[in-house]
């Protein structure tokens, strides 16, 4: 069991808070290892005390993005530094259940679950009979709509295994007695048929019929009418599908909202590896988006020029952006400070690149405001001439430039000045020898001179008014990731 989870249950017990872990107790070991959500049912009278305990332990409230909140249901997230895991507590004050997309039914079974408990290690769990009542009703309701059925079929083997684990002879007898006591209007025979349909299992059409009969008998507990519930389910299903396409398993955001986190540093300092690990870690629970400001996607203004770039690079290799930037950096500022030294094609390309970065990061901040954690590979710094920053004005201006070049310098500078700084910059560093060795072992090897130049130009990046955390990456990856997780969680 994770340390933070252990302490949570110790504190709940010490505070005499009535609670139980009430869903999927057959995989309780995975739940308590933070492999799945920790679903707690808390007595409503103890809600305030529960919130006090969980916030003292470093849990922070979270909300689902883009959907109305479910009544009597709260989310809390915490970083367990010892394990490097995000712990998700899903707190219920009423049994809001049924379809996973809409949770359209408030079943008056709280006291049944909280009264009929046993102890599983450190946590209270409902007796199998009580859990079986809720399980059969939940699974039956999931058969009543097409969207829910589509989701259910993906985990159908888990449903069958859980049904078999719960449905002992003793639990079945207990469940019938509890059902009669707590839902007297519900038919015990229908309950048995629905359970048998899950165990055998019955043909799909039969389970759908039984699901709709269960829904009919529970209609007095519905939060919405059937048409409104169907529309809400379609919206939720569509939204979940879109998030899956974008690679995010959950769409939670912390109560403070999202953030833009920049990962910067020289070539071969491990940005891609670190970003992949951070995306996987945060994406288990939070809404995460990953962008690349070093190579931003094209926009309507730049799509045609970007398509022509490969041809222009082959025809004019001396005007490739990387080569011109390295030559200008090697030449230094010079006494004249003239901007006449940059080729016109390089100037146009620099402005178009600044435009694409500006558009990309503007969208990134809009997504952060709407709850996403945006992980950004590279980011424009405050230093002119630094990688991913303004290039054209790095040698100053004399007033003797052509009007076009002067306009390009001014336009590029304005585009970079309007880019909002990130909420946090993770500055990855490593000795030059380490980056050269890593570059030699990469699939796409960059010229050594390029790596040396990027290392020098990235040695002192500045981000005004932004927390900057310098992280040495010439250490074991586990140590690097643990340090970064701590800084990222503090920034969220």
Helical residue percent band: 40-55%
Could you give the count of β-strands?
A: 15
Give me the side-by-side strand order of the main sheet: 1-2-5-4-3-10
How many domains, in number, for the residues?
Answer: 2
Main beta-sheet strand count, sense and barrel state: 6 strands, mixed
What is the end-to-end distance? 25 Å
Question: Structural class from helices and strands?
Answer: alpha/beta
Query: What oligomeric arrangement do these chains adopt?
Result: single chain
- Number of H- or I-type helical stretches: 19
**Overall 3D shape:** elongated
Q: What is the gyration radius calculated from CA atoms?
A: 29 Å
* SS strand fraction: 15-25%
Stretches with pLDDT under 50, minimum 5 residues: 334-340
Q: Give the integer mean of the pLDDT values.
A: 86
